[in-house]
Amino acid sequence: MLTKEESDLLTLTGHGTLCGELMRRYWQPAALSEELPPGAAPLPVRLLGEELVLFRDDQGAPALLGAHCSHRGADLSYGRVEDGGLRCIYHGWLYDRLGRCLEQPGEPTMRWRQSGGRNSIHSPTSDAHPEAASTSHERIRHPAYPCVERAGVIFAYLGPGEPPLFPNYEIFTMPEDHTSATKLYSECNYLQGNEGNIDLLHTSFLHYIRRDLAALDPAERQRAVERYAAPGLLSGRGPSPGQERCEAQLMPYGLRYAKIRSTGEEQDYVRLATFVLPNLCVIPGGGINWHVPIDDTHHWKYILSFNREAPVPAEARRGRDHLAPPPTYLPIPNRTNRYLQDRELMRSVSFSGIPQIYFAAQDLCATETPGAIQDRTQEHLVATDAAIVAARSVLRKAILDLQEGREPANVVRDPAKNQFPEIVATFGVLPPDTRWQDYCNDLIAAGRGWQTNRAAQ
Predict the structure, then answer these.
(1) Residue 214 DSSP symbol
(2) In a domain, 456, yes or no
(3) 285, 299, 301, 428: which could form a disulfide with 184 (CB 3.0–4.6 Å)?
(4) What span, in angstroms and rounded, lies between the C-alpha atoms of 256 and 250?
């Protein structure tokens, strides 16, 4: 368990908090590209507790500004996109994507001074003399944050100084049509969602469905019996009681972790994944779950995937929306309808009773119900929580590094270091007499660490 102070260190992400300052040192997803098509209205965004507005300028480039006009605080998401920026509808102040105020059209373009010393804003008379036009717009620097667009997601850097290099994760090297991205609204702290990815043991319980082995083809049947000791049974003790262990291995920018089960033939079945600082995981099957704080009690789960060999079919892109459809991305199964849990389904085929078509809602049930911010002073961790403990230590180390003036891990500024071969995400049976750590090294050496939707066998 953690003390309240230790928990606060890892969970609070608003301005001035240590974890919030850490999060701001990395590029973070701000919105899906599909939320801001060309010509769209500005999009209000809340990120790390900050009210922001996202828009595309005249060239179609995404831009992220503070939501409230520097003049009188009006909401810029109601603004006019024109003249190279975003114009406030209250008094017409115009901001570009760098936060420069280009115009304050309500201010006089020329002042006139009467020869008698009295100022006038009216038309000049014969004894009036011109003064310089107002330059107050030049002194305004509105909050503005750099943006980049990759793989169907608009990312922003909210930290100080020059942004680090955008991370060259493999998905961002793919053609755009080989990638897919969506998101899911989550009513809990980001850490609860992210730790759900790191807790691999739960997949043998929360996500388990009984297999009808007789109905499976031989390859599917073989995969089922490799993964579980009793894939044809539905028991409260799970399909492999007491037969799985969880381990972790530190890496330069996060944590590699594994769930291992002996197949009984002097071989192990493994599921391998990687936690990457500060708030994302590459899970078995190769997808990215990126948990981005909206504030301390809500977050977006961005779900990114790719296919090296072929474009992602259009029907697959549409199919991802059945759980949390646009434009709200609010989950259809949620706490108000008890995540559509079906008790009869629970007795017959599903461990959780939450329909498998709503797979991610099963996770929501487990991560939202502990409360908006879980009270970790009441938890009791056990041996299979080793990866959770290690991931918290990695995150804590990054926070303390920043606090002590060191740049935290995975903030990349050297192009030669902007590569991530150590990321491993796969599943399957290990070669005989092979430790999972050595298997990871073999995959990395072969350039096959990050597997997508299939095991490396």
Answers:
(1) G
(2) no
(3) 301
(4) 6
Report if residue 5 sits inside a domain.
Answer: no
Note the pLDDT tens digit of each residue in 325-381: 999 999 999 999 999 999 999 999 999 999 999 999 999 999 999 999 999 999 999
pLDDT, one tens digit per residue, over 153-181 is 999 999 999 999 999 999 999 999 999 99
Helix (H) or strand (E) holding 399: helix 386-403
* pLDDT tens digit sequence for 47-96: 999 999 999 999 999 999 999 999 999 999 999 999 999 999 999 999 99
Instruction: Tell me, yes or no, whether 47 lies in a domain.
Output: yes
Are residues 315 and 406 both part of a single domain?
yes
Q: Is there a single domain that holds both residue 69 and residue 104? A: yes
**What's the gap between Cα 175 and its chain centre?**
20
The encoded tokens of residue 379 equal 């938890």
Question: Tokens at residue 185, please?
Answer: 């609204």
- Name the percent of the chain in helix, strand, coil, to the closest 5: 30, 25, 45
Residue 265's SS3 state is coil
DSSP state at residue 350: B
For the segment 107-113, the average pLDDT, to the nearest whole number, is: 65
In a domain, 232, yes or no: yes
Whole-model pTM: value is 0.92
- 309 in the same domain as 172: yes
CB within 8 Å of 303: residues ≥ 6 apart: 181, 182, 183, 184, 287, 288, 289, 290, 320, 360
Distance CA 8, CA 436 (A): 34
Q: For residue 82, what is the domain's CATH number?
A: 2.102.10.10
Q: How far is CA 369 from CA 333, 334, 354, in A?
A: 13, 10, 14
The tokens 């590699």 sit on which residue? Answer: 256
Residue finishing a domain among 122, 147, 172:
147
The structure tokens listed for 127 are 């004894």
